[in-house]
């Protein structure tokens, strides 16, 4: 089996292609012939040595896949060879074959291709869990979504709109602001030139938002809390700028604010299956009907992974960067 691996830590020069042993199917897993995967910020951080892979998980990058079932473990039932599936994996996605836990596998609708399915898995699970399960976002609520043009950000925007909520996003450029307005954002705040707290309060007539979805971390904590309405909730799901920050507890107490955190990859598998099941209950049918679809910035061949990572590192993407692993005839591109 051929795969993309990192030989050491550093820049894109550590990315290489290697022949590796085929994954051995464990009792609860499907062996999937990978047709498409997608690039996530964690893949770049892993290459740079800034992200430690949890014990027992694959060091091959790639945490979401779409493909066809090749085999399955002794505890798995209900699947057939060649069945199209997608889902979040514990690494190993940048390869010709990958293991996918049966509780994380989702059927690909007939109307959806492998690339679109691969772009759906991680961001939809993350956004459903953070916005609705943890944040309690409801119809008519305002929500502030940081990094609005990212894959998570665009997914959160579309999910919020589908639920009847009112998304306000932060972005880093006029180009991204224009793209998010086109997707339906109530507002796209250019954080480099605008005070996002002041803009949120202006847009909500001084009330603040019900939910803040944050990827930045410590650098935004105080401002995020001041953007929340009475009883609002901030959900942290990334730490791009600061692992810690001072907090005004009096403000939290007086405003009855909530601060929650979420990480998918660090959870035990039983909890991950629960996250996937909650995603399935709410979103499988709307996805199958085409009511909501992931925003795809670009589709690259897996052998163009260096180029794809350069785009992500430069923050040029609007939506998901997808990597195809096989051509239309199912032949490997690795």
UniProtKB/TrEMBL annotation:
Regions annotated as coiled coil: none
- Official protein name in the record: NAD(P)H-quinone oxidoreductase
Q: Which residues form the Enoyl reductase (ER) domain?
A: 10-323
CDD domains xrefs:
p53_inducible_oxidoreductase
Quick check: keyword ATP-binding in the entry?
no
* Transmembrane feature ranges: none
Molecular function via GO: NADPH binding; oxidoreductase activity, acting on NAD(P)H
Task: Report which superkingdom the organism of origin falls in.
Answer: Bacteria
| Keyword vocabulary terms for this entry | NADP, Oxidoreductase
**Pfam families from the xrefs?**
ADH_N, ADH_zinc_N
Organism of derivation:
Dyella tabacisoli
Q: Which InterPro entries match?
A: ADH-like_C, ADH-like_N, ER, GroES-like_sf, NAD(P)-bd_dom_sf, Quinone_OxRdtase_PIG3
Keyword ATP-binding recorded: no
């Amino acid at each position: 089996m051929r795969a993309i691996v990192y030989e050491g830590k550093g820049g894109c020069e550590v990315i290489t292609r290697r022949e590796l042993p085929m994954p051995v199917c464990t009792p609860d897993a499907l062996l999937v012939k990978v047709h498409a995967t997608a690039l996530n910020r964690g893949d770049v951080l892993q290459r740079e040595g800034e992200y430690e892979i949890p014990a027992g998980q694959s060091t091959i990058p790639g945490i979401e896949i779409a493909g066809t079932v090749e085999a399955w473990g002794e505890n798995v039932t209900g699947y057939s060879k060649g069945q199209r599936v997608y889902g979040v994996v514990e690494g190993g996605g940048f390869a010709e074959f990958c293991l996918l836990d049966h509780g994380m596998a989702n059927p690909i609708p007939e109307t959806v291709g492998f690339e679109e399915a691969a772009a759906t898995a991680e961001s939809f699970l993350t956004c459903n869990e953070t916005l609705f399960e943890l944040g309690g976002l409801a119809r008519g609520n305002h929500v502030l979504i940081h990094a609005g043009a990212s894959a998570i950000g665009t997914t959160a925007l579309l999910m919020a709109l589908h639920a009847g909520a009112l998304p306000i996003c932060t972005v880093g450029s006029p180009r991204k602001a224009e793209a998010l307005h086109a997707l339906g954002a109530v507002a796209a705040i250019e954080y480099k030139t605008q005070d996002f707290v002041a803009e949120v309060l202006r847009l909500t007539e001084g009330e603040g938002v019900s939910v803040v979805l944050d990827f930045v971390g410590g650098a935004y904590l105080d401002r995020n809390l001041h953007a929340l309405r009475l009883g609002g909730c901030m959900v942290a799901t990334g730490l791009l700028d600061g692992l810690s920050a001072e907090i005004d507890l009096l403000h939290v107490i007086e405003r009855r604010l909530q601060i929650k955190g979420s990480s998918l990859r660090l959870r035990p598998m039983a909890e991950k299956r629960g996250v996937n099941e909650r995603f399935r209950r709410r979103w499988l049918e709307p996805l199958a009907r085409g009511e909501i679809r992931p925003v795809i910035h670009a589709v690259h061949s897996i052998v163009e992974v260096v180029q794809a990572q350069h785009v992500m590192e430069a923050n040029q993407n609007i939506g998901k960067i997808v990597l195809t692993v096989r051509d239309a005839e199912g032949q490997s591109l690795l």
